[in-house]
Amino acid sequence: MRPPAPTAPPADSRGTRAALLFALTAERLSVFYAHGQWPTAAQGTSLVADWLGRSGRSLPLADRRHLSDLSDQFARQIAGSLSREAGLQTAHEMMEALDPRYDSDLARTLMAECTKLLDAA
Questions:
Q1: 13 phi, psi to nearest 5 deg
Q2: 70-109 confidence digits (pLDDT tens)
Q3: Cα–Cα distance between 73 and 40 in angstroms, integer?
Q4: Could you tell me the superkingdom of the organism this chain comes from (predicted)?
Q5: What are the domain boundaries of the chain?
Q6: How far out from the chain centre does Cα 6 lie?
Q7: pLDDT tens-digit series, residues 3-51
Q8: What are phi and psi of 35, to 5 degrees?
Q9: Residue 20 contacts residue 51 (beta carbons within 8 Å)
Q10: What is the pLDDT of residue 13?
């Protein structure tokens, strides 16, 4: 008999929101460095809904928009403070860190910053 699958934390928990902000920021940076364009606020809002929907969770539209806006600000701040090469490396590191088995000091630092951004908002 298999043990029951762990349940995901609620979508509106602080940890889930921080993880969503981190993932959305990573996605925005990846798109920016790959295509030279920033994803729109609507695209960010839809991505959050898609990601949560995979686990049967959801957030109200206003909350998804807020996460999208915060991720846009954070991604632009990161890109504006780094050289292109360092930005590419940071985006790559963040995307790798979406796998919970991947350990990274940079990802932990950026996740802590995501939590601070949420707390300040």
A1: -75, 155
A2: 999 999 999 999 999 999 999 999 999 999 899 999 999 9
A3: 12
A4: Bacteria
A5: 14-120
A6: 22
A7: 555 566 677 688 889 999 999 999 999 999 999 999 999 999 999 999 8
A8: -125, -5
A9: yes
A10: 81
Identity of the amino acid at 69 = D
Whole-number Å distance between alpha carbons of 23 and 97 = 9
For residue 81, the one-letter residue type is S
Distance CA 78, CA 45 (A): 20
Tokens linked to 96:
């790798």
Secondary structure in 3-state letters for 27-91:
HHHHHHHHHCCCCCHHHHHHHHHHHHHCCCCCCCHHHHHHHHHHHHHHHHHHHHHCCHHHHHHHH
d(CA 10, CA 56): 10
Amino acid, single-letter form, for residue 116: K
Angle between helices 61-81 and 84-96 (to 10 degrees): 140
